[in-house]
Every structure is written in structure tokens, then in C-alpha cells.
Write a structure and sequence with these properties.
Mean pLDDT: 95
CATH architecture of the largest domain: 3-Layer(aba) Sandwich
CATH topology of the largest domain: Rossmann fold
Largest sheet: 7 strands, mixed
Low-confidence stretches: none
Strand order of the largest sheet: 5-2-1-6-7-9-10
Strand content: 25-35%
Radius of gyration: 21 Å
Number of domains: 2
Shape: elongated
Number of strands: 15
Number of helices: 8
CATH class of the largest domain: Alpha Beta
Distance between the termini: 50 Å
């Protein structure tokens, strides 16, 4: 059994199949309306499962029906996005690939919170799934450093690569017994869109981390203005790639030459 939804949950699924594991069922979030036309689109995991010839369901209880007919050894959860109900956990054993060094950053947005907080290191833990929010025992963890210029996208790719290898290797060698989590617990709440607005009074390092997260925005002459990339030069933030409202991404200097800000004029 495999439960996952976004793109970062696709490589572990593909790796499990390539390693010879039989995946009886994939459970993922329902199709969503995307774009202006409102066309229903499947999740990346659903697309991958269909390509691999694996049955797909959208209800966790469907796991029990499959398990009743053909007993399953293990369920694997990677960025599924929903809590699994106790009556399912009582019938099946699950492991969860969590993208932080537990118990730091339990919850929905561990990658984003580690980056925003300025952590020097994060990682991936293979853990036992239980009813609490990311509270289960840990089978193994691998650390991943966060560089001074690492973006959230780059960090996700690295964590997925490391986590995929960890999952496949531990299933091959045997999970063993999980160890209780130790250390200070922190929680990774989902990123609120309001958090992505740049506060120009904040420390420059904090603003740089927000831009590296992706989606950071400000305003210029009353219009929304995104900053996709920036550098810190001599203690000041220098935009590199920007996107004025209604226009494509462009080089900051090219935009500046066209907009011609007045002396002292800056983002709002």
C-alpha cells in the first residue's frame, strides 16, 4: 500500500516498484480543479500510479477492503496530506517518510519551516505511523545540510533523493525496532499566504530566506510584485529575478531600466 499526493511523493513510489515491491493500492487525494478552465486534474502520485499500472483510490478505508482480500505487509506514507484514522491504523502497519529531523518540525510544512527558521541542517526520518501528529518511533534518519543560498525547491529535491534511498534500503535490510523520539519538539504549521509578503523592516537574512522559500511578494507603485531570487551584497538585499504583476519573470536590472524608479523609490 502507498499513500501520497504531491510530486515529491512520486520518486519513492517509483523506487519501490523498481526495487520489486508489489504495491497493491495507491491512495491519494481526489482530483482537483486547476487553471482558469476548472478542468479536473489528478495528483502527481495518481498519474504515476496509473502509468505504473497500480490501482488508485481516494478513500483510506479502501485499504481495509484490499487488505481483507489480500493481506498486506506494510503501508508506506509519503506526503499524503491527510491524517489516517485510528480504525485503519489498528488494522495495518504503516511507515512514514517525514522530511525533518524529528521531533523538530512535526506537521504539514517541515521543509518550509526549517528554511524560514534559518536551520543549518534538516533531514529525513523513516518513522512508525501512529495516531499522534508525527509522534511515532523512528527507524532511521539522515541529515541534509541547508546552504546559505539553498532554495526550498533545491532542498525538497535533495530530501526526496535521500529519503527515497533511505526507504528502499531499510525495507531491504529490515526495519528493526523504532526508537522513541528525543529532543525539543517544534511544529511546522502550513504556510499562510500572508507570510509570503515581504516585510522590508525585517533583517535582510530573514527576507532572503523568505525569497528562497518561493512565492515572496511585495508591491511597487501599488501593484503586486514578486521577487523570485535575490542575493545579499554588502549587507543589502539585491533582487536578481523579479516578476511585475501581469508580466513574465525577468532580470531585475532589465525591469529597473524599464520602470526607471526615482531616486530613493523602493518597494512598498
Amino acid at each position: 500500500m502507498y499513500l501520497g499526493t504531491p510530486q515529491m511523493a512520486v520518486p519513492p513510489l517509483e523506487a519501490l516498484v523498481e526495487a520489486g515491491h508489489e504495491v497493491a493500492l495507491v491512495v491519494t487525494n481526489p482530483d482537483r480543479r486547476r487553471g482558469r478552465g476548472g478542468t479536473l486534474s489528478p495528483s502527481p502520485v495518481k498519474e504515476a500510479a496509473e502509468r505504473l499500472g497500480i490501482p488508485v483510490a481516494h478513500a483510506v478505508d479502501d485499504l481495509l477492503a484490499v487488505h481483507a482480500e489480500h493481506p498486506v505487509d506494510l503501508g508506506v506514507v509519503v506526503a499524503y496530506g491527510r491524517l489516517i484514522k485510528p480504525h485503519v491504523l489498528s488494522e495495518l502497519d504503516f511507515v512514514n517518510l517525514h522530511f525533518s529531523l524529528l521531533p523538530r518540525w512535526r506537521g504539514a510544512a517541515p521543509v518550509e519551516r526549517a528554511l524560514l527558521e534559518g536551520d543549518d541542517v534538516t533531514g529525513v526520518c523513516l518513522m512508525q505511523l501512529e495516531e499522534g501528529l508525527d509522534t511515532g518511533g523512528v527507524y532511521d534518519c539522515v541529515e541534509v545540510p541547508i546552504g546559505a543560498d539553498t532554495t526550498a525547491d533545491e532542498l525538497r529535491h535533495e530530501l526526496v533523493d535521500v529519503g527515497t534511498r533511505l526507504l528502499v534500503d531499510r525495507l531491504a535490510s529490515g526495519l528493526g525496532e523504532p526508537e522513541p523520539q528525543t529532543g525539543e519538539t517544534t511544529y511546522a504549521a502550513k504556510i499562510d499566504p500572508a507570510e509570503l509578503r515581504i516585510d522590508w523592516s525585517a533583517p535582510v537574512e530573514q527576507t532572503h530566506r523568505l525569497i528562497r522559500l518561493g512565492g515572496a511578494w511585495t508591491t511597487f507603485r501599488g501593484a503586486r510584485f514578486k521577487i523570485h531570487a535575490a542575493n545579499i551584497v554588502d549587507g543589502e538585499l539585491v533582487p536578481v529575478t523579479v516578476q511585475p504583476e501581469g508580466k513574465p519573470r525577468m532580470d531585475y536590472e532589465a525591469w529597473r531600466n524599464g520602470a526607471r524608479p526615482a531616486d530613493g523609490e523602493w518597494f512598498e
